[in-house]
Amino acid sequence: MPTLRETSLVKVSVEPGATFLDAARALFEARISAIAVVGSEGRVVGLFTDDDLLRGLFPGYLGELRHTAFLHAELDVLTARLGQVADEPVQRHMRPAMAVDIDTSAIHVAERFLHCAWGALAVVQNGAFVGMVEQVRFVEALMRRLSLHSP
Amino acid sequence: MSVLAATIFLAALAVIAFEWVHRTKVALVGAGLMVVVGVLDEDHAVEAVDWSTLGLLTGMMILVGLTERTGIFTYLALRVAQVSDGRPLRLVFLLAAITGLLSAFLDNLTAILLIVPITLLLADVLGVSAIPLVLIEVIASNIGGTATLIGDPPNIMIGTHVPELTFLDFIVNLAPVALFTLAVVTTVLYFVFRSRLAIAPEHAAGIARLDPARDLRESRYVKRSVAVLVGTIVVFFLHSALHIEPAVVALAGATVLLLVAADDVEDALERVEWSTIFFFIGLFVMVGGLEERGIVANVADLLGDVTGGSRTAEALTILWGGAAGSALVDNIPFTAAMIPVVDQLAEGREFDDANWWALALGACFGGNATMIAAAANVAATGVLERSGQAISFGRFLAAGLPVTLLSLSIATVYLLFFQL
């Protein structure tokens, strides 16, 4: 049986029209580093990660700056942005979808994890979203299968 | 075959101008087609590449990239903002000056990538619109970059192509006019944007609370990096007396910095913008195709006929034509195409640098006209867009075109009185 079928998935997603705040709440409640943004027919259209949450909460040029230690004190004018993005649609803040099929090989899933920085992938079956898989849960399932770890 | 070569080149320029496909892909496809259809053979294609330009670009990218890690440029930008003491006029002039200076001695694209993100933050802290400040900086970067051999890609191409022109020649012949133009243009732009740059006293206090030196204190290799960068610039001034090519100076400086201030060579070499390097390779091959098929000679003959052999008419046509071409396409491919034309015009004559200064001023000042005219403009508008403050083509044009006309008028007077 493919490893992903033995891995506990977190079924958490939002619609593209959901607000930034809704997506943030879903992320917090699921205690996961990325959630799926799911469109019609269960298709994964993007991911909303904790990086996207951070970028949304701070000015857009933060990612362009290389040095910010000079900001040793909080500046009200910068933190004022926190309230501005709450009602924006999540699709403005999401990133392209990174999904794997539930029946894919463990080595492919491992390769995908090594090439994504946020430690959670969308899992699909017949093209439709079935849940998010966290890297640590995938590794746990893999080790259990190899009898290296007892739950 | 010459029609085919011209068609490939003009089609590539059109695609670059309309930004349908990334410019590097366009240049490489154009270069590939030139070889595949037989405009020029493989040996001539390799010969057409100006390796000195690529060496100079690569060396400077490594030098500036490694020095940038120290936070020294952020420090300079923040100190400038603090010195302005919340006065808009002083802020505008100091930001334009530091951008112009960094552009002249690093290169204008790098200067913009360093200064614009900090400016966006400063604008937020000061409670003013960032767009006027960024526009002034972009324009200052294109004018400041005109002042030296390494400041702007057109100058790099001219400087590495014409061995008679030294680093000091560029400074002597272009820095005064660039400095004067920068002062005039910045004054005009300040009055145009003055109403959007009013700074409330409580916001000015926010800048005073910043600690610019903190990043420097937390960085390694600050002294070594700055020493090597400054040392390299000093050697640029002396390269002619020392009989060392500018590309060798840049690569030697980069090598020294790799030895003394780079723990990870792979990481250090990631500072090289390979897409830019390959863009230049593609361009050189395409222009090589135009030369091979006599198109460059035909354009030079046409230019000679139009100007009737008059030195003044020739230089002013190159100045204004170079600016128009740069504004419509991009000053890098346009300069690449114009260099052999200027070469051809000079055939059989004693060396005369006036046409080269006209080309440098036209291409660099023309880079201010439109959003796509120079790499620095594209980079700055990209940063603005990613930070949610996109600027339209028309809005850029409304500031860039009058500035370009003003700059070219100054350059015309300069050429007439000091070079012709």
Task: Tell me briefly what this model is.
The complex is a heterodimer of chains A (151) and B (420). Chain A has 151 residues and is α/β, with parallel strands linked by helices.
Q: Would you kindly provide a written description of the structure presented here, covering whatever features stand out?
A:
The complex is a heterodimer of chains A (151) and B (420). In chain A, 28% of the residues lie in helices and 19% in strands. Chain A has five helices and six strands; from the N terminus they run βαββααβαββα. In chain A, strands 1-2-3 form a three-stranded mixed β-sheet. Chain A is globular and about 55 Å long. Chain A starts with 12 loop residues before the first strand and ends in a 6-residue tail after the last helix. The model of chain A has no long low-confidence stretch (mean pLDDT 88). With 420 residues, chain B is mainly α. Helices cover 79% and strands 0% of the residues of chain B. Chain B contains 22 helices and no strands. The radius of gyration of chain B is 21 Å and the shape is globular. The mean pLDDT of chain B is 91. Chains A and B meet through loops of A and helix 5, helix 7 and helix 12 of B.
